[in-house]
What we know:
Elements: H1 16-29, H2 31-40, E1 43-46, H3 54-66, E2 72-75, E3 106-107, H4 112-122, E4 131-132, E5 140-147, H5 153-168, E6 181-185, H6 188-195, H7 198-204, H8 208-215, H9 220-237, H10 241-250, H11 258-263, H12 270-283, H13 290-299, H14 316-322, H15 343-352, H16 359-367, E7 373-375, E8 384-391, H17 393-396, H18 403-406, H19 414-421, H20 427-439, E9 442-452, H21 455-464, E10 473-475
Parallel strand pairs: 1-2, 3-4, 5-9, 5-10, 6-7, 6-8, 8-9
Amino acid sequence: MYDPNGVNSSPNALSHADVLKIFSNFLTTKPMMAEVIINKFPFIFIDESQDTNKDVVNSFFELQDAKSDKVVIGLFGDTMQRIFGGGESELGKTKPSGWATFNKEMNHRSARRIVGLGNQVRSEDDGRKQYARDGADEGFVRYFLLPHGLPGKDDVELKIRAFMAEVTGDTGWTDTQSKETAILLLEHKMAGRRLCFYDLWDKLSKSDKIKGRISEGENTELNFFSHTVFPMAEASSKENRAELMSILRASKSPLLEATVLDANKDDPLGLARAAEHAFRDVVSNEKVCFRLVLQVIAKHNLLRIPAKLQSFVATSEESEAELEPDQAGARVEVEAEPEEQDDSEIAAWAEALETDFFQIRNYKDYIDGNSIFRTHQGVKGNEFERVMVVMDDDEAGGFLFSYEQYFDVKELSRDSQKKRDEGEETGLDLTRRLFYVTSTRAKNSLAHVIYTSDVAMLKKNLIAKKFAREIEIIEV
């Protein structure tokens, strides 16, 4: 069994990594596989090749070498935008050899100053340069240097955006609904703090199995709350009967099943109305926790409860004992129990259910892309009129990157220095590419907000690296 979305929990399931390995092996060791592919696809183009799995891309290199008269393979991508693990680190350097290379030298996106910054960052890597189109604006780049541990980051960053609006004459900097503004953060949890869903995120992230899926908006249990329960809470508070009925029908509420309606012929929707009233009473409290919302749904059998949340609600028999006699036939319904239970998931949900339910509103806006906050890694390929990049190693707590080390404010770790001496990639290489990607997302104005342990040293090094002009640096 294989699910490309990552839900591969059965014992014999294939992971995405397994499928990539199998494909690479078949393409290089099974002649028939190669023949099938080149006969069906004589032209093969690989997009985002810099982040394509190393084994997969190398197997295509071998295919080109072996069948150069029968297949044409082309790669699209920018090696300076390789920011995910698993890509071929020698792409564009030693691999592939003998291929024609086309450089995209004209930058039609960004203002001159931003193109110049990208070139300077790139000079430390492959040295390729781009040019702004004729007639492009000069643009704006500003660096705001702040000490670690500064209180009231939200207010400070708000004032920085107001400052940028004044400097650039662009009021879009202060428009929180603008689709042309992006505030880039290193980790999703940083957005959680700024958008007030951190408690929920923090508790669920304790399970590695949950963490990756909530960042993609693909966790079944959390989607139950964001896609069904929260919209139902909004419709209920507005007493929008048509929307409520639509949600109940779409989610196949047990209270709308034929057996329940037939058992209450005098008032078929009586149970549903009573359940919705009880639900509305609970969600009218802005500070209600997830657990109480889940309990009222289970008690009144309003919705089917996802399997992994079953242990947090009363059993069918317990719930039925609490129901009125005329509610017979409306037994609590839950989704089928999964084959395997993960203790870390149950423990994470036990804590998460005690947090405020209405965090789900902000989480949903963030995951649906309705906020101006995004991650450094998540904007590759995007462009915005104005971009603010927040760099805070302490708050991010990551170990794969370090802006403080990249800007020479902190020394390299012993392990990183050893890798560097041996010619291996280090966190500095990843950080450089992240800095390049985020800096080049902006069309016209760019603000780098950097939290640091040494403001004076950072300022000195930004100027020395020719990333910043002294007039562009603001010490906060």
